[in-house]
Amino acid sequence: MAHNSPSQNTLLALARWRWWELLLWALALTSPLLLSSHALIINEIAIVALFALSLDLILGFTGIVSLGHAAFFGVGAYAAALFAKFIMPDPLVGLLVGMSAAGLLGALCSATILRGTDLTRLMVTLGVGLILMELANKLDWLTGGADGLQGVAMGPLLGQFEFDLSGRVAAWYSLSVLLLVFVVARRFVSSPFGATLKAIRDNRLRAMAIGISVNGRLAVVYTVAAMLAGAAGALLAQTTAFASLDVFEFHRSADVMLILVIGGVGWLYGGVVGAIVFKLMQDAISSITPQYWTFWIGLFLVVLVLVGRERLIRPWSWLGSKAQKGGLK
Hints:
Blueprint: H1 6-15, H2 19-34, H3 39-59, H4 70-86, H5 91-109, H6 118-138, H7 140-143, H8 168-189, H9 192-202, H10 204-209, H11 214-240, H12 250-263, H13 269-288, H14 293-307, H15 309-312, H16 314-326
């Protein structure tokens, strides 16, 4: 009988689910029913968490810094919205179309991250996002330009569940997609392929020296991350029945970076935790002081960096330590 090697046992441990994870996801999926009056913000949190998870694949697990991740988010949003308006209103098919369009763009743009330093990657990824935003603005006959793409009507989910004004169907839809993507991403980063990504992150030259195809793996993970970002953009367009130039804005890329700063990089729950904290703070502070809510979030981030995440947010630091030891990456 064949026995697993220590490295294989480690990867299996990384992929194993813990009881408290199942409890957390069960609570998340029931939250639109338990907190029906807050279904809209639950939907937003799920979409932002998915977007953050996609960035963490390249930032936390591969070490690629990007300021233009909103480009894939925006392409997914417009692809899903245009598909629903002009071809077919089915949400699931539209979601696949948005992911495919973003993945194609990611595959094309992957060549930009294979050369140069982190600074050049930052500038190139930022430039791609700005180019796409200007392109969407100029093609106003198709995208609606600055007014946005209006008149997007979504069909019922699975042919039965109509998107309601309360946002409960939208929240369940986004949470279900987030859970499915999380499960797939978990297997992805816990696989031997994911182990090679971490090796590239830690020391690219050493990874090349032991025979890892660095460029091929970077292209694959960048394309996968683009697809997941496109899925988040498609969910936003479908659940709001609207797509505008805002999906390409720099602030979306900046916000998702801040979310990972809050939640932590290199473990998939970091994007989920960061999205919850960021969106709840944004909603609470903006209701108190609409003009200065960014100041208070900025102050929180400064304190977070100076004091340390572990000291400031004890419960999440405990989950983070469990993740490192028990394999929540």
